[in-house]
Amino acid sequence: MRITNRFLGALALAASVALMATGCTGGAASPAPAGGSGSADAPLETIDVNFGYIGDFNGTSLLAVAEDQGIWAKHGLAVNPVVFTNGPLQIQAMGTGDLDFGYIGPGAVWLPASGKATMVMINSLGQADRVIAQPGITKIEDLKGKNVAVPEGTSGDMILTLALEEAGMTKSDVTVIPMDPAAVVTAFGSGQVDAAGLWYPAIGTLKKQVPDLVELAQNSDFEDQMAFPSSFVAGPDVIEKNPEMAERVVAALKEANQWRYDNTDETIELVAKFLALDVETVKADAANVKLMSTTELETLSTDGTAETWLTAMNDYFTDSGKLDATALEPSAYYDSALFTGAGK
Fold first, then answer.
1. What domains appear along the chain, each with residue ranges and CATH number?
2. Which of 105, 102, 218 has its CA nearest to residue 155?
3. DSSP code of 37?
4. Rounded CA gap, 181 and 110, in Å?
5. Alpha-carbon Rg of the chain, whole angstroms?
6. pLDDT for 72-81, tens place per residue?
7. Structure pTM?
8. How far out from the chain centre does Cα 77 lie?
9. Angle 168-172-177 (CA atoms, 0-180°, nearest 5)?
10. Is the alpha carbon torsion for 259, 264, 270, 274 positive or negative?
């Protein structure tokens, strides 16, 4: 499967205004077998994979590790990483066949729950989302009637909705202005909007422009209601049409995840190199992420914990109007059997 020139042109334009971009490309495959794939006596046939990611620690780290440590190649994969500004755009690309796998934050979970992708692995728990406001605004209630920028269908949208609900408000009490993340940074930094639903590291960038900006709400304010899992997803027909690709990709992600967990400082350096950023910026971003070992993720995927997280997400998206009665149950859109079995 190859990305079309027309689609790549659109991506290049998006990447030019994105907060971060990468010049890294996928490596060639090598003969070592991976888990249950192939045999010890014969090299694996290389499988090409188009893999979407977001240019931050959460969305980039496993791809950076897999490339640097030769994990893609070990599993017979030639991965073409393609940068996006958010999860919904990646799932849109999967729908047109231009992308095989991708990364989404918690704010995009409603899309797999709508049947538009299959979740294949929980990545981490995020703590990077905030509702931010211009100096002088001190509480959510102060946003009534004000302009609030937010990338729709993202975790920034999600944190804004939760914060408004806790304050006894809805989006109808504010003027929501949909923007992509880079545009939110520009609009907030120039004082064109009063507030925003956004995340780190973009907020870190904004603090250099508006050092007195106010953080009105964050993920930890809602820990008693839900977790905020980011995840990796496959295109709607990838697993059915190419189960070997799916098994190899998930096995590689599991291996990269364990390496990241065991070598977090080194992973931060790899992400900084991958995204052409300074290490301190990536380190600050990584501080907003809860990582879990691969064994822990397997346990959470089989003991009901992950299903509880996703059920809470389904309830939230139903209440907020993103999902209706046709929404899938978590067991129907998270392929936990693929995740736990891959590489064994």
1. 5-126+228-341 (3.40.190.10), 129-222 (3.40.190.10)
2. 105
3. B
4. 19
5. 20
6. 999 999 999 9
7. 0.80
8. 21
9. 120
10. positive
Give strand ranges (E) for 55-100: 77-84
Contact of 135 with 161, CB cutoff 8 Å: no
Distance CA 319, CA 314 (A): 9
Predicted pLDDT at 41: 53
CB neighbour class for 319 (10 Å; exposed up to 12, middle 13-18, buried from 19): exposed
CB 12 within 8 A of CB 1: no
Q: Which helix (H) or strand (E) holds 153?
A: none
Packing angle between helix 243-262 and helix 57-68, nearest 10 degrees? 100
DSSP 336: H
Q: Is 83 helix (H, G, I), strand (E, B) or coil?
A: strand
Range list of β-strands (E), the chain: 47-54, 77-84, 101-104, 118-126, 129-133, 147-150, 175-178, 195-199, 214-218, 229-234, 289-290
Residue 22 has pLDDT above 90, yes or no: no
Residue 197: closest CA among 163, 143, 149, 127: 149
For the chain, give the number of residues: 344
> What is the full DSSP assignment across 27-57?
PPP-S--BTTBSBTTBPPPPEEEEEEEESSH
- pLDDT, the chain, mean: 89
